[in-house]
User: Fold Lipoyl-binding domain-containing protein from Bradyrhizobium pachyrhizi.
Amino acid sequence: AGETLAVVEAMKMQNVLRAERDGTVKKIHAAAGATLAVDALILEFA
Assistant:
């Protein structure tokens, strides 16, 4: 818990996504540097 999962940049601000609890990332759906749509899936948990 508390581990950084991703850093998302929006409106020139960086937002850190942190894990709220222990778990395993099953799949990463977004590539580094990719432009994402609103509500786009970034990570999937096992």
Q: What stands out?
A: The CA atoms of residues 8 and 15 lie 5 Å apart. The radius of gyration is 11 Å.
